[in-house]
Write a structure and sequence with these properties.
The structure is a single chain. The protein contains seven helices and 17 strands. With 323 residues, it is α/β, with parallel strands linked by helices. The longest helix has 18 residues, at 304-321. It is globular and about 65 Å long. The protein starts with a strand and ends with a helix. GO terms for molecular function: oxidoreductase activity. This is Thioredoxin reductase (NADPH). Keywords: Flavoprotein, Oxidoreductase. It holds the Pfam family Pyr_redox_3.
């Protein structure tokens, strides 16, 4: 392929779309590559999920985000970003995963599942929802272990173990319990996380207190078998009957793409990519970072609402450098 784009944006989530909008404003020849559906991460959220952010803080490009309540649902967000996509006629290739990134002379070459592209600049807006944090315990590979949760209906009348104490774990525990599952939770600390949505946290705390949902605190999963799970607790190992394990253990960025380009990561536990906060350019000239990928393993530092500004600073810098 002989054409060379000004910039290719890897990731078609909200931040990737915002980058596309800003690229258009600056007259840049751009392409967005998304390995799944439009805003694939939001699509994979639990069906009944409601955002912590208010709809006005998720807006971009001056397009109002209208929702029934001030905190929008997953469905409302999918509809809003669909409207952004069509309103700006964004140049997005869906279901085209990036496989290899490399420098080729004074530009970059991107190999995908469907072709090869050349570009002067790259923006990585890949998020972190694609790679789950594994528990690394025997039996984790069993089909009954799931790292993504969509809805409660498959778990009616089943014995469920939810691993984790953040928002996704709490939502899964409450929803499956309310549909008739027998629910237990494994928590690393003494209770669910402090950052659980404030209108949900009292609910889960009360369900645990009354015994409706059993919580193993300061505990870890030790082994998973077909019909049971062994949990390491402060009082010793406990084995409980089990049909499904919902491992809501969080997710991490795709460091492989960063490594291919030579983007440096911090040596501490955050593994945060090296970039200039003024323009989001990484230590590799021509490679920019946008959105939650900037936080490395600290996935709670960046959200849609505080990352949309990355798009403007990135495209402004690229436009200047390509003049």
């Amino acid at each position: 392929m002989n054409k060379i784009f000004d910039v290719i944006i890897v990731g078609g989530g909200p931040i990737g779309l915002a980058c596309g909008v800003e690229a258009q404003k600056h007259g840049l020849d751009y392409l967005i590559l998304e390995k799944g559906a439009l805003t694939n991460s939001i699509y994979n959220y639990p069906i009944n999920m409601r955002f912590f952010s208010t709809s006005d803080r998720l807006e971009m490009a001056g397009i109002p985000f209208m929702s029934v309540e001030n905190k929008p649902t997953r469905t409302e967000a999918l509809e809003y970003y669909r409207r952004i996509f069509f309103h700006f006629k964004l140049n997005v290739n869906l279901y085209e995963g990036v496989e290899k990134l490399e420098r080729s002379g004074d530009h970059f070459q991107i190999t995908t599942s469907k072709g090869i592209y050349q570009t002067r600049k790259i923006v990585l807006a890949t998020g972190f929802y694609d790679l789950p944090n594994l528990m690394n315990v025997p039996g984790e590979e069993l089909p009954k272990v799931m790292h993504y949760y969509k809805e409660p209906w498959p778990f009616i009348g089943q014995k469920i173990l939810v691993v984790g104490g953040a928002n996704s774990a709490v939502d899964a525990a409450l929803e499956t319990w309310r549909k008739g599952a027998e629910v237990s939770m494994v928590l690393l600390g003494d209770e669910v996380d402090d950052n659980v949505k404030y209108w949900v946290r009292p609910d889960i705390m009360n369900r645990i207190k009354e015994g409706s949902i059993r919580a193993f605190t300061r505990s870890k999963v030790k082994e998973i078998k077909e019909k049971e799970v062994t949990i390491s607790t402060p009082e010793g190992d406990v084995t409980i009957a089990n049909d499904f394990v919902l491992a809501m253990t969080g997710y991490k960025p795709n460091f492989a793409l960063l490594d291919q380009l030579g983007v440096e990561l911090s040596l501490d536990e955050k593994r945060q990519p090296c970039y200039d906060q003024a323009n989001q350019e990484s230590n590799v000239s021509g490679v920019y970072l946008a959105g939650v990928v900037c936080g490395g393993l600290n996935t709670r530092e960046f959200f849609i609402e505080n990352s949309i500004v990355h798009a403007e600073s990135i495209m402004e810098d690229i436009a200047k450098k390509l003049e």
